[in-house]
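Protein 1 of 2
SEQ + STRUCT:
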Amino acid sequence: MPQSAQPNAQQAALWNDASGKAWVEMQPILDGVLAPFERLVVDAGYPGGGSNVLDIGCGAGATTPAMARRIGDGGRCVGLDISQPLVTLAAERARADKVANASFEVGDAQAYAFEPGHFDAVVSRFGVMFFDDPVAAFTNIRQAARRGGKLAFVAWRSPVENDFMTTAARAAAPFLPPAPAPDPEAPGQFAFADGAKVKRILEASGWSSIKVEQVDVQCRITEGNLMKYVTRLGPVGAALREVDQATAEKIITVLPAAFAPFVVAGEARFNAACWLATALA
């Protein structure tokens, strides 16, 4: 699958440097936190044994091998991600686990020169909210699917509904310069917070039989891993890489109390409020 020009330069720079490296470092913890979504996405997108499946934004390679095992040796699941560090790790893990029908490539799904009509299904676990032009991206992805091919992905709902995900930023805010108001149209974690917007994007991209359903998933992370998780990832993780030591220490000091309401019996438990979007090419 040769690749054409890449439009999402800012995302490429981010995920091939600090963010990608942080996700590589945090892979075991992230896999545990996001494990409930693996089955959800595989079940929703499974096109049958022996099929070809594309996994968009495959990250460190959890969903791709899971789908590859499900479709069996007669099929193949290809993981695509903009981050070279994550794709390298994903390929290493698949080889170590002997999942021979899972493969990985570096590329941007918005501009990738897919073989037309090749895939029986396209899936994604939180990998489709980062496109500069989501209609162009989903049009390109649709053209990679065969007629009647499945699409299934999960994306975060609103920040208000995902209070765990925004707790660190709220706790750190008094110690950081005022942040600009978030642009709901900009690429990012909550870019698909509006379910009606998701449906409009898919309609404009030529998908049919579109469903955008609310899904609430209970996630967990051990108390021992919690502070590592919240100080390495997201906007606070990015801020801590930039601020001076005194400011970093102030932020790190207030985080345990901020997350205390989520901790029960040695683990943080939280609701992940998402959309499960499905459609047909």
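Protein 2 of 2
SEQ + STRUCT:
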Amino acid sequence: MKQLEQISHFFSKYFALIVIFVSIIAFASPGAFGWIGAYITVLLGIVMFGMGTTMRLSDFTLVAKKPAPVFIGLLAQFLIMPLTAFGIAYLFNLPPELAAGLVLVGACPGGTASNVMVYLSRGDVPVSVAMTSVSTMLAPVLTPLIVLLLAGQWLPVSAGEMFMSIVQVIIIPVILGISARKLLPGAVEKGTAVLPLVSVTAIMLIVTAVVALNAENLITSGAAVFSAVILHNGFGLALGYLTAKWVGLDETKRRAISMEVGMQNSGLGAALAAAHFSPLAALPSAIFSVWHNISGPALVSFWNRTGRKETSRNNSVTGVS
């Protein structure tokens, strides 16, 4: 078990680099990875079951006790990311599949990676966890509705079928995970250390499958979609922070909302795009999955460096050493 924990820690720490490496291999040898595409929804279900085992009912009580930060964050998440994606898709004149895929990942709930980033940046972890939990539960209704309103002009959208897909691959596995934690706490506690390895492996397989299925499309549309995803993520992180600042929330909540708005459940985006649109529509989600695991830690480092500088400056002013 100790060795598995070490491997899990290694994969979590170097997730972005590992995914980039295997994505290059998938791009060079698409035939070896394309078959994984048929199992994307199963892989996502595994990830969401793992997420469910980390959730507690107390995550939702924060919304009742202090609803304002969570409500503001959720409003920002389900408005900023889809509308920004819509604007970028028009700005870059993306093909219909890529435009719809970008809007789809923007309409997805927050992912668990954001909780880790908020913790590392000394942000408000309870607000982050509450936002992830509530946005996940709202996703069956809000995600299909937003995609229908914003992406319906590019591709036909069946909101009802998308609703059922989200229930099957998100809500049911999450509920099963929460139930497992409640009924089998000992077994779940023992498996907690290796859950990151399972989740990272599943996301890695999803990304490589999408890359393999889009090897030719990456050659023709790679630069445009990479630029669009980087801008999308950057706007989400920045506008999430500025929204929280504008309404007067403190620095810890600004950081939490920034990460929650900017870091999406891109695995869900890839699964829904592949199931309801096309493999090409899943490409923005796959790239997003890699990129936000680069931009998130970079922002954490920036905040921590500026925080130390601010502390040093205050100490020098007050004479504290």
